[in-house]
Predict the 3D structure of the following.
Amino acid sequence: MQFHCVSLSNAAQHTRGFRKTATAMTTTLNINGRRMAVDADPSTPILWALRDKLQLNGTKFGCGAALCGACTVHLDGQAIRACVTPISAVGPHQRITTIEAVADDKVGKAVQTAWVQHDVAQCGYCQSGQIMSATALLQQNKKPTDADIDAAMSGNVCRCGTYVRIRAAIHDAAKALA
Ligand code: FES
Ligand code: FES
C-alpha cells in the first residue's frame, strides 16, 4: 500500500488558496510595536504573513477556517483568527500583537506566569492561541466567572483536553492582577 504525505507547508498553501494567483504588494503592518513590511498578495492571511514572511512562528496553523483558535492574535487588543483575516483588512494604525510579545503587557505576563504555574500545556500546539484569547479576556474583564471564561475560550480547541487547567490559570492570573 502506498501512502502519500502532504507536508504542512503544502497543506497550508492549499488552504491559502492564492498560491497560483498571488500578486505581491508591500503592506506595512504594526506588529508587536514595530512597523514591518510584508511583500505578499493583499489577500494573504495574517497567519501566513507572520509565519512565512516574518518568521514569527509562535502563531500556529490548525484548521485554516476559524474553527480551532490555534492562530489567535490580537488586533487592537481584540482576539482574532489570523488564518481568515487578510493583511488588507488591517488598517495602517491598527496594532497586531502575537504570542512573541504578549508578555510585554502586564496582563499577558500574568497569564503566561499562571500558565507555567499550572503546567497548562500538554503537547502545546494550541497554547499560544489559548494564551492570546485568555489575555484578551482579562484585558476586558478583570474578574471573569467560569461562564465568562468558557464563553471567551469556547473557540479555542485543545485536543489534549487542558480546559480545566486553562480555567484555573485564568482565575489565578486575574487574582495576581487584582
Ligand atoms: S487555524 Fe485559525 S482558527 Fe484554526
Ligand atoms: S495542549 Fe495539546 S492541543 Fe492543547
Remarks:
- The longest helix spans residues 163-177.
